[in-house]
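NADH:flavin oxidoreductase/NADH oxidase
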Amino acid sequence: MSNLFSPLKLGKLVLTNRVIIAPMCQYSAEDGAATDWHTIHLGRMALSGAGMLILEATAVNPRGRISYGDLGLWDDRTERALAKSLSAVRKYSSMPIGIQLAHAGRKASTQKPWDGGQVIEPEQINGWVTIAPSALPFDNDGPIPDAATLEEIDGIVNDFIESAKRAERLGIDAIELHAAHGYLLHQFLSPIANQRSDQYGGSLENRMRLLLEIVDGVKAAVSDQITLGVRISATDWVADGWDLDESRTLATVLQARGCQFIHVSTAGLSPLQEIPVAPGFQVPFATAIKQVVEIPVIAVGLITDAQEAENIIASDQADAVALARAILYSPHWVWHAAAELGEQVTAPPQYLRSSPHGTPSPIK
């Protein structure tokens, strides 16, 4: 039996296999509201045979969007729009669906990637003043963000809580808090971006405070049927930045606070990062986190080969693998992996005859 295609329990949620579709921004929302593009895209992903689909980084307030095209979940309008897409998807798929709740912090107010991805200045169309732990820009010549006041921090905590409540009303199965890739929660964690002198800055305990307040608040606000996890960048890849040792400490604290999985990525906090990019280059960080916790750990990053994914699980380097660009490029990656590893995945009956492998089919 394939390890990759064995069940995995995340809290009370049981996945049929250990392939997870990672959050992937589509930059196709209208004022935060999901559009027909989301219905088409999510429907395609939900028929992939993966164990779970996690929706793209979803802003908890308008200021927290990466770009003006980001998905949001901050009011009744954005909730209704996402409900429409999810309703269509669920007619034909029973795949568990998670959502990544996020705030971009100082990396907000940008163009869409295919339009260059540059910062949009506050006085320009589709631009706004960003917010961060400290008044430090992402790039030295970039706009200076507002340093969050204590009142604004309280508001951000509440925004995450309210978005989590909306997610549960939408029937979302899992919530992933985005504390990676240089966005706001990661900014509070890293001493590069966080140079505060109050209870949210300085020591590791203080830099973790905002994330932990959000974890506690969300746990208290949603039912125990919701699986809660966190995505982290295990290192900034910058000297004197957030590092693996701090990530391991954070992981143990998150487990103690009731988190039910940790999704391990890296980088995104500083343009000075030096990343040794190679296939599976982030997997060792997931393994190092897995060594200090008992909750499932998800590995992500340039995992593109079925046998590679199988080996990661079989050798206990991680409990699941997350795919992003690989599954955009090949939406039936999971079907092909099942065929290669002698396993089966669920597929809609309309597609059953597509298998070229005879009986038994890799899809059922």
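thats it. The mean pLDDT is 95. The first strand starts at residue 8 and ends at 10. bye
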